[in-house]
Design goal:
single chain; alpha/beta; TIM Barrel; Jelly Rolls; 2 domains; 9-stranded antiparallel β-sheet; 11 helices; 24% helix; disordered N terminus; binds beta-L-fucopyranose
Amino acid sequence: MTDHRDGAPLTRRQFTLLTGGALVTARGASALMPPAAGPAGAAAPHVVRDRPRPTPAQVAWQRDEFALFLHFGVNTFTDREWGDGREDPAIFNPAALDVRQWARVARDAGARCLILTAKHHDGFCLWPTRTSRHSVASSPWKSGRGDLVRECVDAAREFGLRAGLYCSPWDRNAPVYGDSPRYNDLYIAQLTELLTQYGDIAEVWFDGANGEGPNGRKQVYDWPRIWGTVRRLQPNAVMFSDAGPDVRWIGNETGSAGDPNWSTVNPAIVTAPGVDGPEIIRSLQHGDPDGTVWRPGETDVSIRPGWFYHAAEDAKVKSVVALMSIWFSSVGRNSKLLLNVPPNRDGLIADADAQRLREFRVARDAMFARELSPVDWRWRATPGPRLEGMATLAAPATVGVVRLGESIEQGQQVARYRLEGDSGNGEWRTLAAGQTIGYCKLDRIDPLVAVSRLRLTIDDIVDQISPVTVRLFAAP
Ligand code: FUL
C-alpha cells in the first residue's frame, strides 16, 4: 500500500485545525469530536464530500457485527461439499427439522442475521420455485409442500434477526447453464421469486465459484442486470460478492481480515465475482485508503472444516480459543463475521456446535464485562501533526481489551494510532498500536500490566477526523 499521505498537506492542515475540537464523554466512552462548522472547517467540505461514506444499509450491515451462515441442502444428505446437480430430490428429508432452533441458537450466540443457502451449486432449491423441478417440492419433506426459505425467514424475524439469502450463480442442475442469455433469465427469475415473496431481505449473497456447464460451456453472467434486479426489488438489502457492489468478500475463508482493513476500495481492481490473482486478494483483504467506493469486507468462515454438515467432523468443531481469535481478526479488524454453522440431516444444529456457540458467547461476555469508566479524557494537539488524548483512571487497573471506533457514517479517516499506558512511574509503554480503526478495532493488551494513566495518539489521518470512540475493558 502506498503511503499517499505524505502528499496530502491539506489533510494534515485540517487535522491541525481540528485539534480545537470539543470533547464529549458518553456512557463511559470517550469521543473526539470535530469542531462545529466555522471558518476553520470551511476549507474541509470539498475533501469530506469526495471521500466515500456508507449507505444506511451498509451501516446497518456493519452494526450487526455477527451473522450466522447456514449451509443446508442435498449435500447434507450425500455427505458432499459440492453436489453435481444429479442428486435425487427424494434424499432431502430432514425428519426433525426445526428452523426455530437455528434462530434460537443464533440469537443466543449474539448473531443478528441468518443467511441461508437457498440454492447451492447443485441447483437444488430450498423453496418451491416455479423455475425448476429440482426443489423441495419434489422431495418427501412435508410431502413436497414445504418451503424452507419461508420457514427460515419467518423464524429469523420471530427471534429478532434479519434474514439473508445465498442463491448460487453456478448451477450444476439447470440444463440451460452455459447458454448465457437463457441461464441469466432463469437466474433472474429465481432471484425475483426470492426477493418478492419473503418480505425484507437484509443481504443477498453471491459466491465466486463458477465452473462450466455439463456441455463444457462457460456461463457469462450478466452482473449489471443481476445487481440491478436486486437493487430494484430490495433497495435496502446489501449485495455481497468479491466485487460487492455493497459488501466485499474478505479474500479468504479462514476468518481473517487484512490488517489494515479499509472499507474503501478501488472498484477497478475486482470487477466481477470469481476472478483471482495476488492484486485481487490484496485488495479484498486490505481495501484501499484512497479507494473511491465504500465496500466493507465480510469475513465468512465455517465453525467446522466443511461448509456442509458431515458427521465425521463432529469432533472438529472449532474451539472457543479459535473462535475468539477469529472474532479479533474479523469484527476486531473493521469487518463483519459471517460464521457458518451447518444444520445436520435431522434439520437441527448439532449439539456440539450449539454448545460451542454458547461457550463462545459466555467467553465474549466475560471479556467485555467490566468497562473501565468513566475516565477523564483530555485531548490536545502535538507537533507532527498529531492528536493526543490522555486519561487518568480512578484507580490503577489492568486493561485487557481496547475497542476503538470511528463514526463510519462520516467515513473512515484514522490511518495510524498508538495506545500507551503509564503504571505510575511516568514512563509510557506501548500497549497497542495499529493503522486503520473504522467501525471497530479491537486490541488485546499483552502482556497485561496495571496502568493509572493512558495516552492515545492518533498519528495520521486521511481526511478530516470525525468522532473516535475509546472503550476500555478490564482484564478478567
Ligand atoms: C464458496 C462455495 O464454493 C462453497 O461451497 C461455500 O458455499 C462458500 C461459502 O462459498 O464459493
